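Predict structure. Chain length: 174.
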Amino acid sequence: INTYSHYAYVSSEARIGLLIIDLQYLPDSVKTYVWKDSLPTGNGPKIFEKAHSLWTDEDGFLFLNGSNLNSGGVIICDIKTDPTDPIFFGYGPNLYTHDSYSRDSILYSAEIYAGTASIYDIHNPPAPVVLGSVKTPFEFTHNIWLSDDSRTMFTTDERANTYVTAYGITHPGN
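Prediction complete.
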């Protein structure tokens, strides 16, 4: 679950689409929406059905991770224009993403099966550009986050007895 404005976005692997909850009427009532649009793929339009996780940022972007499309790679949508009907902007690399985070048009991606943490420039959302990538210590990158000053990236691997790893990212290509 993540919020943007007075909306909560809920992902699920139950193939029910994206649940959108309008929080402005609580506690008296609640209005919900389900987004299950047909998105373009190399094999024609396909229905978005599920996502393992999601992220919404302050600029009104929604990032869907681990979906049934794009090999589980990130799906980027605009929720600023119409929060109850996301507008498809583009796909990140077709590499399964378990978790993502964004700030200032930079996407940080935890690519669990590749065992990598990657950084992408998404100033042009339909065409992300890789800025850097690193193998995480146990090569099963579960999640990713950024320090308040945007100089350090944090990850953990989804393995027993692992730890939080910190990366200086002032030069993401290095």
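Summary: The CA atoms of residues 65 and 74 lie 5 Å apart.
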